Task: structure prediction
Amino acid sequence: MGSLKGKSISKTYQNILQTSSEVLDSNLKGVETGKGGSTAMNLSTDRAEFLKVGIGTGGTQPDGLLHVMSVSAGSVTASSFANQLILENSGDSGLSILSGSSASGNIYFGDASDNDVGRIFYDHANDSMSFATSGSEVMKLDKGGNLNISGTLSQSDDRFELIEMFEKLPSLGATDAVITQSSSATTAVTLNSKYGIITMQAVDLAATDTVEFTFNNDFIYGTTSQVLVNLQDGGTIADNAMINILVHDVADGSCKIRLGTNGTDVASQTFKLFFIIDPYITPNQNFVLGGTDTGGVQASDNTGRHTSFAGIKLVTGATDNDKTILTPRDATTEMPGGYDSSAWASVGFGTENKIEFSAAVSTAASIADASIWAGVKLTETGTYITDANQAYFLYASNDDLGTITTNANLHFVYSVGGADYITDLGIAVAVNTVYRLRIVFDENRKISVFVNNVQYGLNNTVINATTPGGVTQAVRTEKSLAMTDDIDLLPFIGVQTHTTATKGIQIGYVKMSRDLYE
Result:
């Protein structure tokens, strides 16, 4: 291009940019308008300086030194405490740090005396994320999800938390640990339970009479077991009469129970006997087994330990629609005033308390013809039309518990005052797989859900004829509608068979928390 020195310039081109003097070295020169006005740019031979830069801001004033905008996020502006670099979009927004496969990506924090006093860095060589304070690494999250902290981990003192790790197995609840003799006072009775009540058939005990029956119970382990039996209810007994109870012939899985008098006639009565096996060995004090076995009352042996899993296992009976449910122990009469001693049932986990439920549930080798549910409900049943207010995860191989969109997938169900909302989470449930499930209520009683630490959005359209089994939600952060206020919910985890074969799950832990105060 030829030089313009000594030549006149058309007025059309006189208002171009210029510097106050020639740019010859690394000293910055201010860029001016053609008439000598200042601009936001300085130049030298090795750098350019701008007071503020807006990329994609569409002519609007940048919020800070460098403002990169795809689409405006709305009426929001960047905080004055963090406006040197601003990344903005109406949808997802982010920053990528790309590094070598054995290198690290770093964010450093420095001050006048230390340029790396704080650091966040990802090490691609071992796939770990680390945090450093005061120049030293203090926390590392490894690729296995293990968090290592050099200091003390603390949480808010304003939260109340319960954690059940199943150091002891649950047994039957009070409503299931009962049995009635089938025909006569001498008919053998079978009830596999740690404790319970036997209702005998009516018997007339004359002055010298005794009556005896065999009691079969898998909790009796040979002659070393203590089988304690006493009279819970004997009807009307004369003042000078007594009922004596003797336990004898204790063997592995059975014993004999004999009733007699003190020599005084006792008219025909229906006796109720309370029993407990080895009272020094206590079952789980927080949870019991609910559901049904062989179409009737639940059986204690439907829980146990799995050789490759640290928690407990639940198994069903082998009758179609048998179900085994982990339910809070609710005796209601243990303490004065009718309170339960266990906080799992006596502390109110209300929708207004910012409650949180979490559990680790592992599927078994077969999930065909089975249903699994876990969450907070009013009752233990897995059928979603039963409870007017509830929030729980549901896998169901058929529609016995209610219509769902894709039977192979995990769904989430929540109900507000009898209106049911169902979301197909798009997670294909697999065999022998652990699912860490979490339900979080916020201060507005809206729910967020997580599966294996990934959040899934919720459908907020009530089920109808068009979408009877719910729909998927593309926005992962979408919360539920507000739940009904002041509804106390309980945690339940259940498994149900839809065939004539047993089905099972493993449970690693159950956690519940809430604010201390409303």
Remarks:
- The chain has a mean pLDDT of 90.
- Residues 102-141 form one domain.
